[in-house]
Amino acid sequence: MKIAVLGMGTVGTGVVKVLNTNKEKIESLTGEEIKITHVFAKNVDKARDVDLSGIEITDDINDIYNADIDAAIEVMGGIDHTYDIMMELLNNGIHIVTANKDLLAERIDDLTEAANKNNVHLNYEAAVAGGVPIIRTIENSLNANQISEVMGILNGTTNYILTKMTIDGWSYEDALDDAKAKGYAEADPTNDVEGIDALRKIVLLSRLAFNRKVDIKDVPSTGISKVDAADIQIAKDLGYIMKLVGISKYDDSISASVEPIFLKADHQLASVNYEKNAVYVNGNAVGETMYYGPGAGSLETASAVVSDLIHVLTQPANGNFQPAEDAVIENKAVEYQYYLRFGDSEADVKKALDGKVDHKLNTAHESVVAVTAKLNIDQLEDALEGLDVKAKYPVIGDE
């Protein structure tokens, strides 16, 4: 098989390394050699720490269109221009393996339609949770189940920051600076810390788990940039751990969101720390399952990319998964317990909440804190009317 690699950054170089290092095993699985013939890169003269000898490196996409290739690995990122490139390749009968969650979360249905029309693969295991094999697990290994819930720690940057704030008592700013220094956070960390990256991933997981087309604009997301370290420490004393969680549930409609959530300390996801990712899936036959591992990294992500490439070679292109129905996202009926911190006096909080919602008050800290019984968002807003709410987070695992 002849392939082109589009993008030669962290993941692209990792793909070359995995293909070279594990060449013998890969060929034993596929029965043929995988040969990189072309690389598409912005800077053709840049020095790279992989051997690209014998490979045509170009910054002209027409060289890729005109190349004699069977598949393309897209790891360059971007949305609109990359979409045009992928559509051109798919319509030319070229298999695509991609790690581009940004593009897929917005245009996966269009790309899948083109792939199926041209009888080629569109594989994207690396787009969600890096090296954690969750896409094909849901699509194949759990396909005998009706899946009712998908929940995950889907962003390593925010998980690293929250772990440092929880375990070491660091401020958000110090933890973010450390994440940047270690390479876990970009110079502009907005997509990570504001929940955008995790949002894109929960959209893709929801689509796959519930067989519905999910519009990313319908799913609310909140990041961690406004999290107060005081709440993390107060809740830790109460037995809760904060994580940025993407969560999606299905009944007659889908509820989906990304937001900071307090998990009971013995919850499966509460012990997932630092840059690691984990995805929890609940199926009606298998029950509760969880998948854990590295959510990013050169070789870690390349592992998933090359696995997808092996799948292209060993499995017939008999139709990529394509939902027929649009999702209806409805979050108002979802019930959570809530952690609440107030600027009001204990007497005022007690007076306002008593008779409206079951709750436990805690006054061992400077602020009055309450953990409520389960209630939906309308009930919560009604209970909090007139109160000075300093912090408000869902709680999971305390039922």
TrEMBL record:
Q: What is this enzyme's catalytic activity, as reactions?
A: L-homoserine + NADP(+) = L-aspartate 4-semialdehyde + NADPH + H(+)
Q: Which domain of life is it from?
A: Bacteria
Enzyme class, broadest EC rank: oxidoreductase
Identify the residues that bind NADPH: K101
Locate the active site: K201
> Pathway membership of this protein?
Amino-acid biosynthesis; L-threonine biosynthesis; L-threonine from L-aspartate: step 3/5; Amino-acid biosynthesis; L-methionine biosynthesis via de novo pathway; L-homoserine from L-aspartate: step 3/3
UniProt key word Mitochondrion? no
Its protein name is Homoserine dehydrogenase
